[in-house]
Amino acid sequence: MGASKNISLTQAVRRRLAGRGWLFRQPEAFRALILDNCLPITLEPGESAIHLGDEPGGLYGLIEGWLDVLISPGALEPMLVPVATTGWWFGDSALLTQSPKRGAHVART
Questions:
Q1: Using one digit for the tens of pLDDT, what is the confidence trace for 21-76?
Q2: What is the Cα–Cα distance from 19 to 96, expressed in whole angstroms?
Q3: How far apart are CA 57 and CA 13, in angstroms?
Q4: How far apart are CA 108 and CA 48, in angstroms?
Q5: Phi-psi group of 78: left, alpha or beta (phi > 0 → left; psi -120 to 50 → alpha; rest → beta)
Q6: pTM to 2 decimals?
Q7: Exposed, middle or buried: residue 94 (CB in 10 Å: 0-12, 13-18, 19+)?
Q8: Residue 18: what are its φ and ψ, rounded to 5°?
Q9: Structural contact between residues 79 and 70, judged by C-beta atoms closer than 8 angstroms
Q10: Which of 3, 6, 79, 104 could disulfide-pair with 70, CB 3.0 to 4.6 Å?
């Protein structure tokens, strides 16, 4: 997973991330604060943005491409749930509950 430090999001990317999902329904100042603090990363197919059991923290927005979303509710084996695309935000439940991540987000494209 490659991080691009000190690179701000282009206006087109900011519009893409702010125009869908939960962020779209937030006040403009809050949307700007979130987007101002984003660091773009690139994943190759098969790479994970987050892994099951990772420590809490991090909020991610999908700029483009597709992610397979795997969850592990409790003692059950991980299962594939939605396939995510542009505008999908994830990482927030572990961030809010301060518990280990119960999902994995793996790049499909």
A1: 888 999 999 999 999 988 888 889 989 887 777 777 778 888 888 888 877 766 66
A2: 23
A3: 23
A4: 10
A5: beta
A6: 0.70
A7: buried
A8: -85, -15
A9: yes
A10: 104
